[in-house]
Model the fold of this input.
Amino acid sequence: MRAQDLLLVTLREPPAEAEIPSHQWLVRGGFIRRVASGVYAYMPLMWRVLRKVEAIIREEMDATGALELRLPTLQPAELWRRSGRWDTYTVGEGIMFNLTDRQGRELGLGPTHEEVITSLAADLIRSYRQLPVSLYQLQTKFRDEIRPRFGLMRSREFIMKDAYSFHGHGEDLRRYYGSMDQAYRRIFARCGLKVLAVQADSGAIGGGASQEFMAIADAGEDLVLSSGDGRYAANQERAQSLAPPSVPLRVAMDTRFATPGQASIEAVCAAHNLDPTQTVKVLLHRACFAKGPDQPVLTVLRGDQELNTVKLTNTLGPLLVERGTILALERLDVDTLQAHGLQLPVGFLGPDLPDDAIQGAPGLVGGFLRIMDATAADLAGFVCGANVPDQHRRVPGWSMLGLSFTKADVRAAQPGDRCCHDPGTVLTATRGIEVGHIFQLGRKYSSALEACFSNESGSMEPMWMGCYGIGVSRLAQAVVEQNHDRNGMIWPVSIAPFELVIIIANGEEQEQCRLAEQLYGELRAAGVDVLLDDRVERAGVKFKDGDLLGIPWRVVVGRNAARGQIELKTRSARDVLEMDASRLLRHLLPRLQRQRRGSLPEVEV
RNA sequence: CGGGGCGUAGCGCAGUUUGGUAGCGCGCUUGCUUUGGGAGCAAGAUGUCGCAGGUUCAAAUCCUGUCGCCCCGACCA
Done:
């Protein structure tokens, strides 16, 4: 490709819309252009990168025995109602773009494809003899993100690889899940991405075991907690740890004491010489369900602990199965309570807050569902609010309150906490970008959509399913986030838009042009993905653009062209190798061959 | 959805407080010079000041409404 023909438009200044380096560089380099909030055009350079990423994914997916296909983006609501996700995805999370056609039929733009693939599998798969089957596609997905951010990192239209596998028994699902785990590690390594595999929450997809692949980056939106020994890593949404021990508090008898204006744990502790671990905190939420009334929830944690709302949500679902999926969990703080016309002594609430405290609030029916975290349950004596303004209470033990709680792990693990598998090690925090997620779905969707097969003994049973996603466009940007310097991007050879750029230092020098054209032809003939910068620009501009675009190899044909001398340089290193042009291919090709495989360990033949 | 901010040339921005001929830098066009790290000089082109109403002799500027975008929070595969 010649730079003249590339419609290369680079920007000297970062656009105002871009916050993080990868977003700035991609826009400055002319790789992407914003069309609407969270909607981007992939320009020719970006498209070359994406196609290389896709090629790597195809190779590795095919190697697991998966079959590529293409499913529709436009999907009928009826299918989503059968799995019970239409409401979750449209009304609840509101993440699915949906529309009504001219005949009044409701449709959604696919944010994911479990429903479609499962109904197809139900049609096509009849017998255990046809299993296992794994299907995948590379396709545009649509999600109406509340707040699109960071270019391709969180966009409303993006490219995703999604795969779905069907199995005759759980053991085969786990086997294939393991091989997808390995395939994913190979894909990311080949793309030059440093990832951390972590235990994850399954979220709205649901199901059993799941693992996320996090590209390590400060700009990442997820917090990963991992142990120094490499044996444990989890998304904070899901992470478990040992809370610090509490400071014992001996309470002889149930007493109230005045805490004027001390509406926070810190204030109470400071004024009465208490440790936060000697207190309990009470949080109120409203849980909204697909069916039935909203549920008031009262959660009790030890005073020094924070609530993990994902864990709380996951706890509530099974407790109230009859109300269907949880659509929202809303914190009832001072402002919200006032908006509902409730006057509660916020800051002075106790675990025994009576049910009638919230009577009269619109939409809320019945008493509290009371959830208690183990950190609170383990306390013998503790201090809590007395449900009266400016008063707290010393309680000798939980039996005093005569209440029944559902016990659950709802605390947020924190960096510095001791690990469950080895209290001698502690968790450290890393930020990550979720580039892949694999799930063992089990039979959730196959049961809902009646995707059954006849097993060896002739009886019908739902198939076991797994699903496996990679954010393709996000991955490409994550590579830039991990690989850039102050001059621009630094692409790994395996997914670079071009492997090598030839810069003609002075386009008016006949010798330079002639030698550059000759090398361009030779490199192309040798199968090298080469860009010839033949633009009528000064050398400085071409050098700057070459750095900005991050093309991994650079050949400069300049003042020594008449003597047949060129310069060879890599984007990442400073040193320049001056050599005779005739030696270029012999020097370059073996190195390129190695780099095209990405950072995979060498395989001996 | 709550809070904050911004919409002026392709990009980055000033001008708005205090109403009075539409500006700057980069980019673009032409010419000459220059030619190894985003060149110099000269001449030029480019705007429905987001949109719609209103106030006024006069609106980028004041008022009302509306649309879009960004940031923080909430939320989030």
Q: What stands out?
A: Chain A has three domains: 31-210+438-481, 255-407, 492-596. The longest strand of chain A covers residues 427-442. The CA atoms of residues 220 and 432 of chain A lie 4 Å apart.
